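To start, one record:
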Amino acid sequence: MTSKDGSNGETYRAAGVDIEAGDALVEAIKPLAKATVRAGVLGGIGGFGALFDPRAAGFADPILVATTDGVGTKLRLAIDTGIHDTVGIDLVAMCVNDLVVQGAEPLFFLDYFATGRLDPAIAARVIAGIAEGCRQVGCALTGGETAEMPGMYGAGDYDLAGFAVGAAERGRLLPEGVAPGDILLGLSSTGVHSNGFSLVRRIIDAAGIGLDAPAPFAPEQTLGGALMAPTALYVQPVLALARAGLLRAAAHITGGGLPGNLPRVLPEGTAAVIDRAWPVPPVFGWLARTGNVAAAEMLRVFNCGIGMVLVIRPADEAAALDLLAGAGVIAHRLGQITAGTGAPEVTIGPADTLFA
């Protein structure tokens, strides 16, 4: 038996794993990672682990906060459309937006990229997006893992996972002090973000629309291009509010929507009443109509135009809105916190008019 390298024995490359391609990818992404280096990073890409010194990053008595997430079946759209440049931003956003709602500053990020056969060009585009997301929030890309696993993935398929570590000074973690009378501000999303794509894809398939066709809700874009808009990064404005003492709690609106995520930051004996409508991006109305999806299901699956909810004291509303406006962030007054009984809950009304 002669292997592909001309020898008479089996090789790892003949089994489907190209070590040289992996090494070349590491070299290609080193400059991307280097561009994200921040205070506190020790060493660089290529070691067995990432080193970080929180004190060198300016923390006196830090509590570490860690998150992990993926991009879900939005990856199927990235692969089918060939749009690999922004899905890495989604990956970073899904992790660091979860850090910041706890009052933590993202410090460093690691990624996991798995595929059946490594295509260094595609992998580099994905990781370039990860680096760009890290750069935008001031988080260092300190390492990761590229796994080539023949037989585990279909041709051209890949999977992603992300891992972020942040820190907050002891005693400054969120949520803190949420009480009846507090107001709810919603920060606009950039679209579907990275949740609910199994339902999105089901609706597209049933409608028989190609991803390269004009988007019915945004004809100047293809459907695939419009749906691949990356998840908004909320780190900088939310951190600014927290450090100014203007924020009591924040909820990242991901899978589960407003009803599933907002209660996670509310104390027992309170309720969130959302009684004001907000501008819902056209993509959600199109999904609701095309898929005949009920309003309650839309709100339970998608962010529906609100990617982050902030809980603010009434006396701080004007200052918070000024800070957000100065950062170019669109905020909407949604409602308020009221007294409740037992476990926190969310009421939204009238919901039926949101997707008209």
Notes: The radius of gyration is 22 Å.
